[in-house]
Design a protein that fits this description.
16 helices; 3-stranded antiparallel β-sheet; hpI Integrase, Chain A; two-stranded antiparallel ribbon; 5 strands; mainly alpha
Amino acid sequence: MIERQNYLKVKEHLKYLEEVLLLNAASVERYRFYLRHLLLWADDQHIRDVQAIRPTLPSYLASLPGKDGKGILASASQKKIIDSSKRFFRWAKVTYPREMNSLPLSWIDTLRLPRQPQISSENVFVSLEQVLTLVNTPIPEDNLALLRDKAAAAMLFLSGIRASAFTTLPISAVDLDNLTLRQWPELGVHTKNGKKATTFLLNIPEILESAHRWDEIVRKSLPGSSPWYAPIAHSWGDQFLSLDEPGKTRAQALQKRLKLLFSLAKIEFKSPHKFRHGHAVYGLLHAQTMADYKAVSMNLMHESIEITDGTYAPMLSSDVQDRIAGLSGKAMSTPGCQAPLMGDELESFLNTLDRESQKRALVFIAGRLAQ
């Protein structure tokens, strides 16, 4: 049974996050979910005495089942729970110094994920070739819904926008001529954590064509406040744009529609978020400088380039392998030089790389040598 005082303190902490630190409702709900695991682990033990509980919090989390009861809880989720718990413990010690005196800060600092062997997993994203297949899949001319779905596939890849933001994006926020999207909450766009940014589209004409075609249709028939991914009504076999307010499960509806489009294109289905992955991978592979890399990160609305690198760099492994093989003279030579890079030439080439590229090259080479 959960200790009542623990529950009340967690409730007070969540209120502090909302009213003092001004976290939005969605963030507070995530903290509520993470701290629920802490309460279940502590059970009937008061939080001032939890250092004596066995198994420890990290060990307890490592034993929890994963999504749909399969495998174990994702390491990223375990880390978020531990970080949220440490934040809660530190708040509790400051807020209730006498009551929490027996819980040492040194113990709080020991809370961390145990070292685990890395498990190889396939990095899934929608590729440029797959998007081209989707937008070029033949559909009946009068099928307005499929025309919209092809435009959605194009926009998701070109922009890297999240599904929740895309389905709430009004027509007025879309400027295809200038390859611009205004992901502004005040326009009704549901961005993650309420972030506001003007983002940009990849300039790939053969994909942009589908987006332009749909854009012309919605602008002729709907006001600027209507969703760009507009609802479609059906009557006696005909389809037409609707002024009805989209439902709250619009993002799930987008996924169902994309499943149909993938099926027609005869390719394996990938979720709307995998288009975001594809946008990131395409952008990072074409980045020539760290300024380009930073631009991709900002366009994804990440707070730092480290987030982008940590999330998407593993998806570039095959490209990194080709590049490093080239540096060692296995597959590529320097521009204007037919012979493989050797000795001083290899050193000179490495010196042309910026510091971040050298670090990534070193990590990859170390990994290869360790195999």
